[in-house]
Amino acid sequence: MSSAIAEQNALSPTLPLVGTVLAVQANYYWVRLDTSSTTSQQNDASLTTLLCTRRTRLKKIGVAVMVGDRVEIEEPDWGGGRGAIAEVLPRESELDRPPIANANQIVLVFAVADPPLDPYQLTRFLIKAESTELDVCLCLNKSDLVSEEEIEEWRDCLAEWGYQPLFISIFSNTGLDELYQQLNNRITVLAGPSGVGKSSIINYLIPNVKVRVGEVSGKLSRGRHTTRHVELFELPGGGFLADTPGFNQPDLDCSPEELALYFPEIQKRLEVASCQFSDCLHRDEPNCAVRGDWERYDYYLELLEEAILYQEELHRQADPDAVLKLKTKGKGKSKYEPRLEAKKYRRTSRKTQQQKLQELYEEDTDI
Ligand SMILES: Nc1nc2c(ncn2[C@@H]2O[C@H](COP(=O)(O)OP(=O)(O)OP(=O)(O)O)[C@@H](O)[C@H]2O)c(=O)[nH]1
Ligand SMILES: [Zn+2]
């Protein structure tokens, strides 16, 4: 144990070491200790990031540890960079896909050009982001590729939708201070389609990110480290960024009633007026306060159809008696199975998702 930390622990032996889980690999957890848990001399990342196991007690009571979790560490071995997670502190938020605890906001990255900004695709991503109930910040990259006028047009259009986007450019170094302020001291999930510049943003904000990844591999010796896992990257000024491969397929999996919650335009209308029916879906019901001539109304209707089909499919799966088809198996055995109409509405169950994740971990780690 380093003398500074030994001294601190001797002075306050009951003070727990607290940190944030940066990555999970098989049964190991990378934990970045809070700087307040260590001393100012211990700010070197290699000394404040410990490779931890989870106490058997936590396993027994079924407490899982997620990336983003705040945890208490026992028995740190400073020389070997090891420790054990003794406690998981209560979560402020919990995302399912990607699995991240305590995220504060989603920064949704799109490009104004290359690839072209498609309002319908953007809407789908926004709905998905809003459905997490985290704060949503829209960040439009590659503003160097379009004229000032075009940027103003987008600004006006998106203001109508209820968003005040940050226009940035990694290439011409525009808007990056504002982006930095937005990320400071928070846990941010960075999401968006391929090719819009998410990796460029991470590399700009955290220039030494590859160094840190290298360190992780070094400590695990035989373990390979890949970005396929959810992982938090520490921002130099405080806060963490999560890059999320899992977020990049925005399936619409909300109920028809929920959908309206994720359109700021609808919420704005419902603040000043009410529909006649409390369960109005804002389609063709009489005296609807939402239906009307606003830009994304057609998108709303289209997504509503999708949400209705999705819900019907869920009901069919939950209640196989509703619609059954007789499936004949070998040796004359028959079995009733719920009828699945369209292939695209077949979803992987939570359990299957978890299994896939586990397989990924096992595939990626040789420990
Ligand atoms: N003109 C312009 N090009 C940019 C800017 N930022 C990134 N690019 C380019 O856009 C392309 C895609 O950037 P990436 O950072 O790989 O995008 P990504 O979102 O991480 O893409 P995936 O890895 O596929 O998810 C690269 O060729 C970048 O050089 C920018 O501000 N302006
Ligand atoms: Zn209505």
TrEMBL record:
Which InterPro entries is this protein grouped with?
G_CP_dom, NA-bd_OB-fold, P-loop_NTPase, Ribosome_biogen_GTPase_RsgA, RsgA_GTPase_dom
Main localization of the protein described in the UniProt heading: cytoplasm
Name a single GO cellular component. cytoplasm
Binding residue positions for Zn(2+): C275, C280, H282, C288
Class in the EC hierarchy, top level: hydrolase
TM segments? none
Domain CP-type G: residue ranges: 92-250
Q: What is its EC number?
A: 3.6.1.-
Alphabetically sorted, this entry's keywords are:
Cytoplasm, GTP-binding, Hydrolase, Metal-binding, Nucleotide-binding, Ribosome biogenesis, RNA-binding, rRNA-binding, Zinc
Any Gene Ontology biological process = ribosomal small subunit biogenesis
* Family under the similarity heading: Belongs to the TRAFAC class YlqF/YawG GTPase family. RsgA subfamily.
Q: What does this protein do?
A: One of several proteins that assist in the late maturation steps of the functional core of the 30S ribosomal subunit. Helps release RbfA from mature subunits. May play a role in the assembly of ribosomal proteins into the subunit. Circularly permuted GTPase that catalyzes slow GTP hydrolysis, GTPase activity is stimulated by the 30S ribosomal subunit.
> What is the name listed in the Swiss-Prot or TrEMBL entry for this protein?
Small ribosomal subunit biogenesis GTPase RsgA
Q: Which organism is it from?
A: Aerosakkonema funiforme FACHB-1375
Query: Which gene carries the instructions for this protein?
Result: rsgA
